[in-house]
């Protein structure tokens, strides 16, 4: 039953994060939809780690180059997702209030993605690999 509660809380977190992103785009004060490009970063961020988990054998306790590269690429994607709204706001493409809403959404979405891998990432009876 703990897995169902975790799944519901993760879906709630994802919905809240997307709500902040949409508020940063669709409020009549801001009315610019450029921050929706962050959806690509949300989709791309877990891909390197998922690929490295399929390729790498976890029996080795030492550091692995493939896993380190995946963490590096994921970190670059996450930092780019935080940098893009700031660049948009500095270039006056979006307002600073919209930037704040989008950055809040980023924090919530990436915390939800990290929580997903913490809850469902282990190879026990209740893991995401069953889906």
UniProtKB/TrEMBL annotation:
Q: Name one GO biological process term.
A: negative regulation of growth hormone receptor signaling pathway
The family database entries (InterPro entries) matched by this protein are listed as: Vps55/LEPROT
* One Pfam entry name: Vps55
| Presence of keyword S-adenosyl-L-methionine | no
Q: What is any one of the record's Gene Ontology cellular component terms? A: endosome
Q: Which residues cross the membrane?
A: 7-30, 36-56, 68-88, 94-120
Q: Where in the cell is it found?
A: Membrane
Q: Give the domain of life.
A: Eukaryota
Write the record's keywords in alphabetical order, separated by commas.
Answer: Membrane, Transmembrane, Transmembrane helix
Q: Which family does it belong to?
A: Belongs to the OB-RGRP/VPS55 family.
Q: Which PANTHER family match?
A: LEPTIN RECEPTOR OVERLAPPING TRANSCRIPT-LIKE 1 (PTHR12050:SF4), LEPTIN RECEPTOR-RELATED (PTHR12050)
| Summary of the function given for this chain in its UniProt record | Negatively regulates growth hormone (GH) receptor cell surface expression in liver. May play a role in liver resistance to GH during periods of reduced nutrient availability.
Q: What is this protein called?
A: Leptin receptor overlapping transcript-like 1
Q: Which organism is it from?
A: Dicentrarchus labrax
């Amino acid at each position: 039953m703990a897995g169902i509660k975790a799944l519901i809380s993760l879906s709630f977190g994802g919905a809240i994060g997307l709500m902040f992103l949409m508020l940063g785009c669709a409020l009549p004060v801001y009315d610019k939809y450029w921050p929706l490009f962050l959806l690509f970063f949300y989709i791309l961020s877990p891909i390197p780690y998922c690929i490295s988990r399929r390729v790498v054998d976890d029996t080795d306790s030492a550091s692995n180059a493939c896993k380190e590269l995946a963490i590096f690429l994921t970190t670059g994607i996450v930092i780019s997702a935080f940098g893009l709204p700031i660049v948009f706001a500095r270039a006056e493409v979006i307002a600073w209030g919209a930037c704040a809403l989008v950055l809040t959404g980023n924090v919530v979405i990436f915390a939800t993605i990290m929580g997903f891998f913490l809850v469902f990432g282990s190879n026990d009876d209740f893991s995401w690999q069953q889906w």
